[in-house]
Amino acid sequence: MVINIEQAKIIRNRIDNFKEKYNIDFEKSIGNREIINNGWDKILFSEFKENQLIIGMLLNTRYKINDLLSEIILSYNEDIDESTEFYLLIITKSVKEKIILLKSEFDKNLKKLIMERCSINIKYGRLIIEVATAFIPEIDCKPAIGITDRIRVANYSKDNSDIKIESSREGAVYTANLIDLIKLYEQTGEDIFKANLRIGIDDVLGVNSEIQNTLRNNPEDFWFLNNGITLILPKSSINKSKYNKLILENIYSKEKELKISIINGAQTITAASSFLLDENSYGKESEDTRELKDKAKSSAKVILKIITYDDKLNESENRKFINKVSVALNRQKPIKGQDIALVSSFVLSINEFYQSQNNKGINELDKFFIIRRGEIHSIPDRHYDLSKLVKVLKAILGKNPSAIRNIKLDNLLAETKNNNDGLDFDVNEEIILKDKTIFKPKILLSTYTNQREVYIKQFNENYSFVNDIMEIESLMEEHSNAIFKTERKKLKVEDLLGEYILENQSDDNEVEKRRQRIYAMATSGRYHLLSCIFYSECYKQLERNSNTNIESVWEEFLNNGDFTEIKLNAEFKEHFMDIKKYLKLIEGFIEFWVKFKRSEINNPSLYYANEFKVSKDDYEMLREYVKYANNIDKVGIK
Prior knowledge:
Blueprint: H1 5-22, H2 33-37, E1 42-49, E2 52-59, H3 65-75, E3 85-92, H4 95-103, H5 106-118, E4 127-133, E5 144-146, E6 154-159, E7 168-177, H6 178-188, H7 207-217, H8 222-225, E8 229-234, E9 238-239, E10 245-248, E11 261-264, H9 266-276, H10 287-299, E12 301-309, H11 315-330, H12 337-341, H13 345-355, E13 369-371, E14 383-385, H14 386-396, H15 402-406, H16 409-412, H17 445-450, H18 452-463, H19 466-488, H20 496-503, H21 511-523, H22 526-545, H23 550-560, H24 570-577, H25 579-596, H26 618-631
Parallel strand pairs: 2-3, 3-4, 8-12, 13-14
Antiparallel strand pairs: 1-2, 5-10, 6-7, 7-12, 8-11, 9-10
């Protein structure tokens, strides 16, 4: 079994974060071949601190999960109560085991187990489970893909005369065994989809169910009813010497990076895998059902397009070519600007920087990674969904929180267009995201490659605050969602806002108006609050550290913002941890909001959603808030 390199890095980062935050003393096990091979079905780490129980386990046999969890829960039983938060990271040994685990109701069973063992009721959102698959790379593996005929295939080749290198790109279309491509996925894990823009995207159009229905009922028609799969790889990684199979070899680099990628058809692979590899119900389902799955494995064929490129091309040119093909193929299906932005120079450089090591002049914990749609957005891992990140950047770097509600995300992520070939970019050009207020000009792949010191300086000045502010935004989102849920249920007393207001209310006639104000600011106005609170903290830090006139320093900061020395400490973050402190913070901001709008606190129009879309007021609002917060200390942050 092979370890997915990216997943191993994620898990290592998760362990490092736990270790740093909670001072846990354990060895990093993931990625260590010896420890993993000899140590499955065990607790990797556990720690109880600040009323949070954090558990990581290596799981090979899903039936042992209850026993493993029971043992560790009992050891902390005296510390656990109804306010305890449970964080569980389950690392499975294979894609197959992960699929089976996710399709079972293990999360409900675990919740029931904890409640029974500890005699408590677990509240909504207090049990958080992540399932990852750990692989160890089998560097010398040679996956085989069965095909019907190597001779009678459609071939195409193109000389790269425009690049002035003696090389060519070739393509061929085969009829392949679907099960062999699923086995390739099993052997390589999620790495096989690294260059695919759409991996993991939810089954919005019902495509997954259609794929599985075809395999269940008419597997012999699969070739006709599916768009096919595209695999891109270096010429040196494919052996066509066999008549009825393609042998993939040299698929890993010396650095253990996978060199091959399925850039189109990931949904076909994952949906088919979810059906054909799920043996969770074996023993319960009928013999007929098992025969249907066996028939699908043996008879389902799929169109396989193989694209090869010459290894003599430099890495940068190959990457541009792969990105171009991936964008072009996926644009034939529902695809968003967010997906195109993933192959922009900004995102590629941020992600390469995150994965690099031994960089001088950078705090490694300031780096972050931008994921594809459908992958797990994770604050501890510093892995961010681009749609969430760009909203925070627009509120902070752009000083324009109203744009988040006023402008479509695709417009915020608009790229420079070079329509030389009908696409939005040429293979020899970098995709540049237009909004220079949030995507700084020097944060490019070319700068990262050729001017590393310049890149690091620009990163520190413009993005070193990101991880702190993403953590705070995540807490704000969590509180806003909780408030939204209670308001949707129209609870009046026994809910978050009701409890808070009753504790701090002197006039019963004001209860409902107060509820509406807080609700509106928590849901529609939270990015305005985030922007103002952050810049107020920046002002305080600059004032403490400045040896000159603070006003000139502040004006320079507002105009050219260098965030290198701005750090949000635990005391600052504490105001966002507890929901009652957060609600108090919101009410302090409402006081400012009323003054800034020159209105009355009970004016309902102040809290309409459209009121939070007035972009022209944002910069002035931010400046006025900083004055307000630092001269009239009613905001809640000391």
